[in-house]
Amino acid sequence: MEREDKILNAIALTKIDGLGVQRIKVLLDHFGSADELWSVPLNEVVKIGGQIGELLSNKEIRASAFRRAEQEMVFAEKHGITMHLYGDGGYPVKMIDCPDAPIVLYQLGNTSLNNRHFVAMVGTRHATQYGRNMARHIVSQLAEKDKNIVIVSGLAYGIDIESHRAALDFGLDTIAVLAHGLDRIYPAAHRKYAAEIIEKNGALLTEFTTMTEPVGFNFLQRNRIVAGICDATIVVESGERGGSMSTARISVEYNRELFAVPGRIDDKVSAGCNRLISDHKAEMFINADDFFAKMGWQYEKEQELPLDNDVVELTGIQEKIYKILKERGQMQINEIVGLVDEPIGEVSSALAEMVFDDVIEQMAGDVYDLTTKSKLK
Q1: Are 91 and 70 in contact (CB under 8 A)?
Q2: Residues 185, 65, 106, CA angle at the centre, nearest 5°?
Q3: Predicted TM-score (pTM) of this structure
Q4: At a CB cut-off of 8 Å and minimum separation 6, what does 78 contact?
């Protein structure tokens, strides 16, 4: 019962409009805990003064807050939701020092929020095929190096959902951080993925209670959790504005590692990534080996094998590109597109994946050639 009372008191604080996370933390620092705060006589609470004193001493506001808190407790028990209180053992330790860390986190699913490598993957909702391919490619490379990595994103359209799906496909746990309560899934089209995340030992995570609508500001609030619980954030594809750039900014503010996937300089959906790299705010994501080295993470390095189609699986377009470059030597992208006779977007995606796999290398002027390893085959 003591634990339940502690949770109830903490939730009630979050249900008082006008307090906010940072004000609540000031109160908790002053009184020691939510339990101590709620036990203070009303005539003493009034002495706090200002808006905070008025809110906390108002009997109707207090009663309403506890009614809502009790509703959340009932809903959580019915649906198997775990509630993590700020500073408790199950709360993500990486967020403890964040000034705006949530007071309560609601989790559906079993994944631990600690003692793992957590990587946020974010990007535009209007992802191109290149962006989607890169999201899957990055996750597949990370999965090859360390199955203990957890992919974190926001369940939104585009890069978010592609990253979650890739994690599910390649055997990594994944956490979807939501901008609403656990009584709904937004967008509704992603309900099946949310269910699969839970089924495959992932989790849905939010600071929002039930009956919270997924309004714009909540997504910005959600982004700080995505960045805060992770060791690093990878911006896969993004314009110069948008939610993913917000997550990138927060990652820097939280002293997290920030990476970005470069794109063509004339692609608006890659302008944000290119800008982050150009301004030295983000490291360029090259491949998993480079990422692990920069993160200082250890893994059992596999013996490098010579290039062979049985080892490095090439798609139909990649196979065409490989044969062309092997026969003719280095070529400019427009020449390759003409010889492959496939849409330029698909050729660009194939080239990017082959660069990531160290099959080919990109040189100045969008010129490509086989790597030394490939030429030795």
Answers
A1: no
A2: 35
A3: 0.78
A4: none
